[in-house]
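REQUEST ID: PR-0412
SUBMITTED BY: lab tech R.K.
PRIORITY: routine
TASK: structure prediction, single protein chain
INPUT:
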Amino acid sequence: MEVTVTDLSPCRKQLRIEVDAETVDAKFDAVAKDFRRQAHLPGFRPGKAPLPNVMRAYGDKIADEAKRALMADSYSEALKQQELKPVIMPEIEELQFGHGKPFQYMATLEVSPAFELPEYTGLEVEKERRSVTEEDVTKALATLQEQRVEYRDVDHPMGEEDFVVVNYKGTVDGNPITDIVKVARGITEQSNAWLHLKRNPLVPGLVEALIGGAKGDKKTVDVTFPEEFIYEELVGKEAKYEIEIVDIKEQSLPELDDSFAKSFGAEGIDKLREGVETDLKNELEYSQKQSVRNQCVQRLLDAVTCDLPETIVNQATRAAVHNIVQSNHNRGVSKEVIEENKDDIYTNAKANAELRVKANYILAQIAEKEGIKVTEQELSRQVAAMAMQQKIKPQKMADQLKENGAIYEVQEEILNAKVIDLLEEKAKVTEIDPKPEAEHTHSHEHGEDCDHDHSH
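STATUS: complete
OUTPUT:
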């Protein structure tokens, strides 16, 4: 057998495979003998008909079976000979086939990327020196308080701590803001919108202008969109808002007492505080662990440069696009807005897909080197957990995963997690002082915005 390899790209190869005529004839004879055992030809007992008669009667079927067997054997041998790991089924172009002739065909395939595995033990990562403080517990309790908050209508003029319920329309140069940014429906017009000086100012300067106003008041407010505004096209532009104050409400928080604690299933406020502290410690431990694991993978991604199989990246991109679109759809984002953002969605999805695919290849190579495998027990346990989440029987979950081919993704997830366990265990962790909290700009509630990206 002769094999000639042409590199179409780093991950795409074309193999020209030729099987000699002698091997082709031997395979024809072997297949014909198999057919003879089952053949029912007039004048001959089963299995006793001469080969030429069998060849004449079943010629096409024998040729098809011989070709299939020759291709399977030669393709497998060519991969082994060239040390190639295909990632998809090959595209086959037959060049020549027939009894007494060499069998020649082209196989175009995509292969796993070739790269040198970087050092993966002792990866240098950082871990912030953090602990749960009294302030953290107090903040968490305040969040729980807000879950039980009540809002009361008030008669007094609006104060800085009050919520104001308004109807509004915003224009720039007399035209709706959506004429400049189509997806900016939330800041163009709303009815019964709840605004607050700090929590939802909509546009800086707007709520300030309403302070001192009363229910039923109508105001015209001029604002300028600031530098850090979410829509770049609006930065520096002046807008005019026609506003009607529908209601003014004040927030009423419950007391942090035993009665409040019991509403969350705790015996008393002390027990609730203990439970909150335990939860915060568990969350901190989990987030620090995830940070270390993510850094380990990032170090490997930074250390490896390689091309990726286009087909695999495209498959991963399609899946990522589907997830982003589904997520936005579930949030109530309209089809029109998703369509308007499709280019950004695709760009972000592809970038994420490339990172995931690259990480998968690196982790798979480490797994092979370390002899890390996924056991049947581990797979069953993961499938059972997924079944419980979806409230169906484990066997039904397993059948569904096998039917749509997703069982391989589950195996890959488990394998990756086991490899990252190893990276985490062997990592060189340096504790550092906490980084200052990034200042978060409170953006308005712009319900029609479209999420482009979900981190992996």
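NOTES: Residues 269-303 form the longest helix (35 residues).
REVIEWED BY: pending
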